[in-house]
Amino acid sequence: MSDVTRAEVAVVACAELFRGDGEILVSPMGLVPSLGARLARATFEPDLLLTDGEAYLMSDGVVEGWQPFRKVLDTVVPHGKRHVVMGANQVDRHGNQNISCIGDHEKPKKQLLGMRGSPGNTINHRTSYWVPRHSRRVFVNEVDVVAGVGFERARQAGAERFHDLHRVVTNLGVLALRPGKIQLLSVHPGVSVDEVVENTTFELDTSEVTESRLPTPEELHLIRTVIDPKGTRDKEF
């Protein structure tokens, strides 16, 4: 399968985020994570619950149930039955995430989304991130503003047992979020470990790096003909 694209490898890597999750609500924010969630449900995780982000549980455009966001906050989040994949304008060595602004919060150089749901999304259920352009501007020593809660802040708040940071998938590879040092788990085909290291400000644990897996023939068929026949995944790259 020499014609497999980097975008398709990233879709599979995002699907792998949900392996073993079982019957939980997944909230993938962004195109590639959404495609990955649909791929996981269509293959190895058929019990995943997918939402349109507003009020309905969906499966390939078919409404399967009704679950407004208030109900998510009242009944799903408190019980930890959710896996959210957020974007990140900055991620630091402590696992903190920033989508709020660049620069001083009182007088930012650039205004971004704001805190939105990041603080709540990093407590009491599993949290992963998607970064379409891996660079030193994103992977920084210290985020300018903490939106998503990292390991040290969770520890200081006594919330470690409610804290489950999982993975970061990027256009270069997959990182495991770990207290102390973030680990490079895999690099995508055609990417070297050095390339990831050079595009990350802080030190990575590179002791056990593999190559991100390619899609199986079945997965490739689903991506290209069922899940994303218009090739919108390529726009992320």
TrEMBL record:
In alphabetical order, the GO MF annotations are: CoA-transferase activity
**InterPro entries linked to this entry:** CoA_trans_fam_I, NagB/RpiA_transferase-like
What is the annotated signal peptide range for this record? none
Domain of life of the organism encoding this protein? Bacteria
Family assignment from sequence similarity: Belongs to the 3-oxoacid CoA-transferase subunit B family.
The name of this protein is: CoA-transferase
Source organism of this protein record: Amycolatopsis acidicola
